Automatic annotation (TrEMBL):
Superkingdom to which the source organism belongs: Bacteria
Keywords: Phosphopantetheine, Phosphoprotein
Organism of origin: Amycolatopsis speibonae
Coiled-coil ranges from the UniProt annotation: none
Membrane-spanning parts: none
Domain Carrier, chain residue ranges per copy: 12-90
Name of the protein in question: Acyl carrier protein
Keyword match Phosphoprotein: yes
Taxon lineage: Bacteria, Bacillati, Actinomycetota, Actinomycetes, Pseudonocardiales
SMART domains in UniProt: PKS_PP, PKS_PP_betabranch
């Protein structure tokens, strides 16, 4: 399922990389400038709909090359909460 010709990231995904990646994804999906994204602010407060959440979680699965719950952005309510879950050995959710 996660086979591809080239890796998205050379080496392991760091906490900083993941936080920046999620910030950029959220900004792009919501048509907001990156500096307006607060990593501690709830995804819901940005007005993110389920479609955007599913798109980001799908891309996140590919980035991390592991199964995640499609609702992971709703289970961990901010970028920092989600990064913390994923970087601290959060189980594969899907």
């Amino acid at each position: 399922m996660f086979r591809r010709r080239t890796k998205i990231v050379d080496g392991p995904v760091t906490e900083e990389y993941l936080r920046d990646w999620l910030t950029e994804q959220l900004a792009a999906r919501l048509d907001l400038p990156v500096p307006e994204i607060d990593p501690d602010k709830d995804f819901e407060s940005y007005g993110m709909d389920s479609r955007a959440g599913m798109q980001i979680s799908g891309k996140l699965e590919k980035l991390l090359e592991r199964r995640l719950s499609p609702a992971i952005l709703y289970e961990h309510h901010s970028i920092n909460a989600l990064v913390g879950h994923l970087m601290n050995g959060g189980d594969d959710d899907g």
